[in-house]
Amino acid sequence: MTLASFPGGCSSTPPSTSNTAHSITKVTVPALTEMKRQGKPISALTAYDYPTSRLADEAGIDLLLVGDSLAMVVLGHENTLAVTVDEMLHHARAVRRAVRRALVVADMPFGSYHGEVAQGLANAIRFVKEAGAEAVKIEGARIDMVRALTEAEIPVIGHLGLTPQSVHRMGGYRVQARTAEAVLQIKADARALADAGAGAIVLEGVPREVAAEITVELAIPTIGIGAGPDCDGQILVFHDLLNLTFSPPAKFVRQYGDAAALIRSAIEHYREDVEHRAFPSDEESYHLPEEARKALDEIGAKRTVPAHDFNSLP
Ligand code: KIV
Questions:
Q1: Which single residue of 80, 95, 109, 194 could bond 71 by disulfide (Cβ 3.0 to 4.6 Å)?
Q2: What is the structure's pLDDT at 305?
Q3: From ligand 1's centre to the CA of 259, what distance in Å?
Q4: CA angle centred on 159, ends 253 and 205, rounded to 5°
C-alpha cells in the first residue's frame, strides 16, 4: 500500500476509486427502489466519522446513515434529543469525505423539522449544501414535511415504529405497533409517506409480521432495525455491530466483532510498552544524519549523550 502524507501529518490514502469486491456504481435513492424490484437486499449501517465510514463503504455497504444515534454512541448523551444540526453537519461532512459508493443519508435531529415546514426545509438544505448529503431522514408521519422536501428535490427517508426522538411520548424505547389499532395506523402512515414521495422507510422496533406486510404493500423499500428479516434491507448502529456501546445489546442486535476487546487490549499493550520503555525502539526513532554529527564534532559542540549510547539514557 502506498502511504501518502495528508495535511496534519497523518499517514493515509485517499478514498479508493477502485473496489474489487463491489461495483463502484454510486448508490442513489432510485437505485434502492430498483434493488427492491430485483429482490436484492439493501445493506445499511450508521456512520459518524471518516475512517469507519471509509471502511464501511469499501466493504460494500449500500447506505450509510449519519444517524442522530451519534448523540448516544459517539457523544455520550442519554438519548438522541440533544444533538444539534451543527453537530450533525460536522459528522456528516466527515462521512461524505470518506464515501465513494454508498448513499449518504443525514438524519435530521430533534427540533430541526418539528415546527414550521419552511424551517425544516431550510435545515434539510443545509445537510445537502454544507455536508453533501444525498437524502435526509425524518422520524414520524410528517407528511407535509416529506412533501415539501421532495418538491425541493431533497430525497427523504421516512422512519416509523420506535422513533427514538419520541422517547418521552413513548415512555421509553418500546416495540411499537403491537395492537390492532396501532398496526392499522402504522400501515396508513407508511402508505402516506410513500405517497408524499419518501424514497424508503426505516421500520424500527416493530413486530416482524407488521414489517412484512408494509414491505409487501409498498413499492419503495423498507429498511428494518428490530423489524425482522422480511424488510427489503437491514440497518444496524455501527457501535452495536462492533460491541462499542458499553451496554447490553438489544434483542435485534447481532455483534459481528468485538472492537472494545481489540481496542482495550491494544491500548493496554501500548501503555505497558511505554511503562517498560519497550516503545519506541531504535528502529522506530529518527537519527541524526552522519554529516550533522561530524559537523557538531568539528565545532567541538558538547555532547551530553555519547553517540550510539542511547541505551544508557535514564
Ligand atoms: O440514528 C440512527 O442510528 C437511526 C437508526 C437506528 C435507523 O435512526
A1: 80
A2: 83
A3: 20
A4: 35
165 C-beta closer than 6 A to ligand 1? no
DSSP 60: T
pLDDT digits (tens, 9 = 90+) for 278-305: 999 999 999 999 999 999 999 999 888 8
Question: 50-58 and 85-98 are packed helices; what angle lies between their axes, rounded to 10 degrees?
Answer: 50
Q: Has 204 been annotated as catalytic? A: yes
Catalytic residue of the set 204, 272, 275, 290: 204
Q: In whole angstroms, what is the distance from residue 194 CA to residue 216 CA?
A: 13
Query: Tell me: the pLDDT tens digits for 61-116?
Result: 999 999 999 999 999 999 999 999 999 999 999 999 999 999 999 999 999 999 99
Long-range contacts (CB closer than 8 Å, 24 or more residues apart) made by 281-289:
282/310
Atom of ligand 1 nearest to the CA of 67: 1
**Distance between CA atoms of 117 and 137, rounded to whole angstroms?**
15
With a cut of 70, say whether residue 12 has pLDDT above it. Answer: no
DSSP letters for 166-179: GHHHHTSS-----S
pTM: 0.90
CB 54 within 8 A of CB 19: no
For residue 242, what pLDDT is reported? 98
Q: How would you classify the pairing of strands 4-5 and 200-204?
A: unpaired
Task: Please check the confidence at residue 312 and state whether its pLDDT lies above 90.
Answer: no
* 77, 127, 136, 159: residue to mutate for ligand 1 pocket, most atoms within 8 A of CB: 159
* Helix ranges, 39-84 (H): 50-58, 70-73
